[in-house]
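quick q for whoever's on today - can somebody do inverse folding on this one?? i tried earlier but teh output was garbage lol. tokens:
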């Protein structure tokens, strides 16, 4: 089943609990939390204390995306703060297998993230130890960017690989997804659709999530 995963990076942090409640009423089952360190990406966002506070405000699945260096030092702390899934970047993680193991052993799903220019071929030997893959469809660091079109071909390649290997591996996409391109993204093979500005900058985030869930449901039957 395709999940619409609102990204709180675009939410109003002064009213964060209310914003979360809105998307929850719209049917969202997951929230995406972007963690940036100002080194791996040119921005700073949140740490474990914010994740812990969000955990107290909702029972939704918290999907934490670490855009940081030395992720192995912090993954367990984010799980302990309440993360249900934690993803780390292939480009910044020197000991990827070990870091995925740390996440899993702490009790969360472990994901691998690829930047737009990183080919899916680098995942050939590690797909068996990951619970999901996140493909960035913008260059990470800031919200509100446009989706990079060639990333959808990467989605199709990864979808073919998982079907050939019979892997139950959700494909997540993050960046520039909105109502106009959502159906194409779903048909390419994405299962978890991260969307920030399209939801939280809309007049009614609840209605927007409902609309996007319907678009995704209609597109699921005609994936290519």
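ok took a stab at it. sequence:
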């Amino acid at each position: 089943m395709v999940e619409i995963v609102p990204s709180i990076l675009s939410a109003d942090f002064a009213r964060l609990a209310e914003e979360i409640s809105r998307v929850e009423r719209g049917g969202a089952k997951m929230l995406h939390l972007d963690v940036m360190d100002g080194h791996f990406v040119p921005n700073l966002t949140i740490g474990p204390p914010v994740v812990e506070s969000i955990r107290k405000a909702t029972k939704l699945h918290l999907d934490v995306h670490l855009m940081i260096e030395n992720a192995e030092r912090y993954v367990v702390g984010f799980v302990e703060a309440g993360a249900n899934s934690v993803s780390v970047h292939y480009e910044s993680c020197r000991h990827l297998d070990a870091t995925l193991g740390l996440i899993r052993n702490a009790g969360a799903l472990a994901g691998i993230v690829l930047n737009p220019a990183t080919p899916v071929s680098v995942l050939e030997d590690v797909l068996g130890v990951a619970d999901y893959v996140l493909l960035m469809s913008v260059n990470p660091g800031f919200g509100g960017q446009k989706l990079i079109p060639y990333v959808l071909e990467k989605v199709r390649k990864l979808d073919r690989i998982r079907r050939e290997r019979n892997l139950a591996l959700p494909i997540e996409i993050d960046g520039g997804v909105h109502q106009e391109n959502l159906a194409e993204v779903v048909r390419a093979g994405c299962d978890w659709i991260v969307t920030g500005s399209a939801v939280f900058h809309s007049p009614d985030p609840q209605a927007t999530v409902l609309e996007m869930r319907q678009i995704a449901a209609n597109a699921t039957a005609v994936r290519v």
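fwiw The chain has a mean pLDDT of 95. also The chain has one domain: 3-220. so keep that in mind when u check it
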